[in-house]
Amino acid sequence: MAERSTLQRIVADWPAKVLSLVTALLLFVFYNLNRLEDRFVSVPLGITLSDDYVPSTVLPRGVRLTLRGEARSIVTILEDDLKASVDFSRVLTEGVAKASVVVERRGSALGIDPLEIVVEPAEVLVNLERKVRKVVPVTPSFRGYPEPGYEMSTFGLTPAEAEVTGPASAVSRVVDLSTEFIELTGRTENFTTETRVFSRDPLVSVVGIGTASFHAEVHAAIDYRKVEGFRPKMTGLEEGLVLASPLPSCTIRLQASKALLADFQPAEDLVIIDLANVRRPGVYTFPLFARLPEGFALDSLDPESVTIRIAAGGGNR
How many domains does the chain have? Predict the structure, then answer.
């Protein structure tokens, strides 16, 4: 009889008691929810693709994670222990594909409860194209200029070509690869340097190489100077013979560094005609010769030879 009375007391007003219990549970949940805090972190996004298809648009490099949990717990989570990834490896056709971002908890992120992780963006949308390859030339990029009075005459890259790979539409637009800037400022002599090779299009990758060897020849800047109306100087004519016809004027074009040409003053014997082999009067054709100072080279001489008449006379002139 006493047991029944106890049971009756327990079940008496049961709707009110159930309501009170539910209310208590909700209060407990709300209390715990109010104790949870948010922490925001950004992590790299790993992307898995098939061997034959690649994105034709730039994909996000990372995602933003919202970690919700107890403050003392979530603050201990290392960002490296949260790995975000998206998998397109099973997509084997061209076109638009979509996949959800998956977050893997490792290390310091394991065993934490409660822990809610919200990913932004939660899905990645991508347009896939067939992957192709192509060989293109490598073009050097320069910065600055050699020392005043010097110039870079020849240069080359090894390798001069490289293979690229990427979506067909992007690879078709690639005509060459670029290098990082090669510094020319202050150069006065030949040099060799390693330089990074890269694609200007982020969708296109360079295959097999990361750098190229650049080599260049640098020397004093060469310029030209023309001396016109210059009369050759006659040498070597024997006594008893004289020049019976006037020597024609000539034009000489010299090649040298700009510094040498700036101070150049032509000597009287800059161009000569050597008559040492003349033994008797007559008409002769002789070549003209240029006597050049050190550092000068002959670019042209006009005329290269002259025809003159030698006569008997009282002496040289």
Answer: 3
